[in-house]
Every structure is written in C-alpha cells, then in structure tokens.
Design brief:
It contains five helices and eleven strands; from the N terminus they run H-E-E-E-E-H-E-E-H-H-E-E-E-E-E-H. By secondary structure, it is α+β, with helices and mostly antiparallel strands. Helix 1 crosses helix 2. It starts with 5 loop residues before the first helix and ends with a helix.
C-alpha cells in the first residue's frame, strides 16, 4: 500500500464502496479522531462513548509502503483492556480490509513498532487507616471529566496505582458549581472501580467522604 493520508483513504473507500453497497460506517458510539503523537507521526484515536479511549490505529512508513498498526489502550493486566480490544479489533480489521481493497495488498515483512509512552500528571489522594497507617481508600480527581468515557480514561491511566494500593478507589469527575444559601450542592460523575465495581453515579463530595470515612473506621480496630 502506498503512503497516503488515512482520512483521504477512508474518503476513497466511501466513494468506491458506495457503489458496491459496502460503505464503511463506524458502530454507534464510536468516533475516530486524528492526533499528532510525541514522535511527530499521526495516529487515529478510536473512542467509545462509555469505555473512553479504545486505542490507536497508526499508519507507519515501511519503505515505499505503509504499515497499519492497531494498538489497544491500557495495561495488559487490566480487565478493561480485554473489553476495549473486543470492540477495537473488528473495527481495525474492517478498516484494514477496505484500505487493502482500495490501495492493494502490500509486500515485505511486518516491522515491530513501539509507540512512545506519554506521561500524565493526575491528582490523587490516598487515605490511610488511622491505626495501621496503610492505604484504606484512593481518590482520583478527573478534574476535566464530564462523560463516562472520560472517567474511564482516568481509570485506565491510573491502573498501575490502583493495582499497587489495592483498595476501594473512586474516580471523581468535574464538580458542578452549585452552592445555595451556604449549602453545598455540588455533584460529580463518579466511578468506583475497586471492590464491587459499580456503574457510574452522580454523587456529592459528602457521599464519597462518608464512604471513605466508613472504610477508614472499619479498616483496623484497636485491641
């Protein structure tokens, strides 16, 4: 396959496949967005409305041709990575199939490709037990998250820390500004991702702190 811009190729796929009633259509809730990577190349981010970032589809130069690389987001030991892969795989395969139909099948060996790992700074607070001083709860602040998918993005990025502490963990999204007559009515999309993973809820700061306080009190008892 010759080097071509991914979006241009998808446009050509649409033109050709319309006549054959094979138009490429993304599944409901899935979006693809072009993004410049740290190494100066472009990748195409595939997102799901509820699961957040599923992965990347990359067009990597390989001699006078190009190689399609599909990467699933998340750590290998994260159970959510399997769910992302189940959605991403058929999409990537369909795109690769249609690109081959338009541009022809490439030749030559497939080269290994390593994406640069991005660094992220995410605010979090570990609440220790007052008796043994070990971790009792972890709060992760997704200060710009207003959707389910964005909360899942933070959970994915913090997976190693969540695994390290191995305690009940909350990912807390952007708080609404709502204080009436001195009463705190702020609420956030919140995801509890440890010990009976729950659906995403809308909670107040007090809702979360009450649960954290219960965990701290129950963690140890003085004999």
């Amino acid at each position: 396959m010759k080097k071509k811009d991914f979006i241009d190729i998808l446009n050509k796929i649409d033109i050709i496949t319309k006549a054959n009633k094979m138009k490429f259509v993304l599944p409901v809730g899935i979006t693809v967005k072009k993004e410049l990577l740290d190494n100066g190349r472009y990748g195409y981010i595939v997102r799901d409305t509820n699961l957040g970032q599923l992965g990347h589809i990359l067009i990597v130069p390989n001699g006078n041709q190009s190689q399609i690389v599909c990467e699933v987001s998340g750590d290998a030991d994260d159970p959510m990575t399997v769910k992302r892969q189940m959605i991403l795989d058929p999409i990537a395969k369909e795109i690769a199939y249609k690109m081959t139909a338009v541009c022809g099948k490439g030749s030559g060996e497939i080269r290994p490709y390593d994406s640069p790992r991005q660094q992220h700074c995410i605010k979090s607070i570990m609440h220790p037990c007052e008796v043994c001083k070990k971790a009792a709860a972890l709060l992760i602040f997704a200060d710009d998250a207003t959707t389910n998918g964005q909360l899942e993005d933070y959970a994915m990025l913090m997976h190693s820390k969540i695994k390290e502490f191995n305690v009940p963990t909350w990912v807390i999204g952007l708080e609404s500004e709502n204080i009436v007559n001195g009463e705190d009515l702020r609420k956030s999309l919140t995801l509890k991702i440890k010990n009976n993973r729950r659906v995403i809820e809308i909670l107040t700061p007090d809702d979360v702190i009450d649960e954290v306080d219960e965990l701290i009190q129950a963690h140890c008892s003085i004999k």
